[in-house]
Amino acid sequence: MAELSDSQALAMTPERDARSGIDWFVLTMLLGIAAFLYLNLFAFPNIPFLQAGDQIYFWVFAQRMSHGEQVYRDFFQFTPPGTDLLYLLFLKIFGARIWLPNATNLALGVALCWACFGIARQIMARNLAFLTTLLFLVLIYGGALNGTHHWFSVLAIMCAARIGLFGINLTRLAGIGALLGLAGFFTQTHGVFAAAGFALFLIALEYMTERNWRRLINALTVLFAVFGVTLAALNGYFVKEIGIEKLWYFQVSYSRQYLAFGQHPLLLGIGPVPTWHGLPMFIERGFVYLALPIVYGLVLVWIWHHRCRPIDREWKDVMLLCFIGLSLLLEVSFSPNYVRVFAVSMPGIILFVWLLGRSQRVWRHALVLAWIGVACLGVQQTVLRHHKASVVAVLPSGTVAAAPDVYEKLLWGIKNTRPGQFFFQGTWPGIYFPLELRNPAYLSEVTVYESTRPEDVQRTVQELEDKQVPYVLWNEYSDHPDAKYQSAYHLSPLRDYLHDRYRRVHVFSDQDEIWERK
What we know:
By secondary structure, this protein is an alpha+beta fold. The chain has two domains: 23-384, no CATH class; 391-517, no CATH class. The chain is 65% helix and 6% strand. The longest helix has 30 residues, at 213-242. It is globular, with a radius of gyration of 25 Å. The model is unreliable at 1-20 (pLDDT under 50).
């Protein structure tokens, strides 16, 4: 082989570095994202803000599993155990430290942003992909910082989408099916609907191109076979432990009957009409709710209008993202709230910026407004988190900054309980992990809704009696719910047991109550 001249070698160096070297832009971007998340998760210099939201359930589940308890058998759970097991792994490695949820949220956010940038980069220029990633970080993920099961499912789904953007063949479809099966191990419905979205993409692509139906059948067979095998393998241990019928009840029957169509609050789960202080958050959520269906509708129109042109990579990539995003949005529309809608919004955010980039008339103004909006929102989030009233508490699990009303409960717990002690927090499982207390009951919380089943309430009463639990955290609303919930109220046995065997010894400023065994 002839040697290259010096000029030829120099000309080839950047391309070789781009292929095999470090992408310093991406690395710098991810470090900046980590720094932003750190500022929103930790008070200076290294005190974690006490985490809230649905993620708390999964940390408590992992805590219970670390004590030898079994999901579904010893404590109630209706989602697949993927998040429980992942958090259990973290507890085994690092111990029950109060900073662990914060660090997990940081790592999860960086991973999601990496996936977002990688996908966006396939269909738009780097500067637009960067803007897309920051928009997702600040508007979507940074506003919640809630490491619940939805995000892990979406991360697996978007990794599958990224594989699909490199082209479709049977090997890649096997990888996609495995990732979707993993997504279903975190959120059962996300995996199924995402698989349906991929299947619709394959069908539409074949219909609009070569119409090779044999090839389509092979592709769909590989996709769903690997998806099913992966999901079955991940759930296999739990099928062995409790049986397929009980697993089906928890993951499918219960969720469908009591949760999927159970609550339809006003404004589709955006939240109540806010005060002036909460208006910016209300506007953010409303924008995402309105933008997603509009974006998907415009993209579908674009796909249809370009179907007769030569099929190129951009057309395929955009159609894949649109079908995945629409499938996930359809899934959460059955019982929407802003956590679910935000968690599945990444495809829509990417396509939103892609649409702006194609519009030459509005792009310059939209670009400036988008950068300004992201910067202002990011600064606002960070400043509010640090100026929000919080008190530093030294707990058995570490030092933490908590809101005053939560600190009040933590302070009482430090004075009156010890790590490892049984304590039943009937209202919300928020102090088990910080104080290293143990839930003695099958239920993580009891509610006035129909989803709290009477047989589970009876079991909880028996467990409180068997373990002679010294304290119960309760609230008056659980005794006297609104009239609209009276027909679904199943807490009477627990309420009567509490009043018979316990006495109220303390009332917090938020009207939650401590009841002590007589």
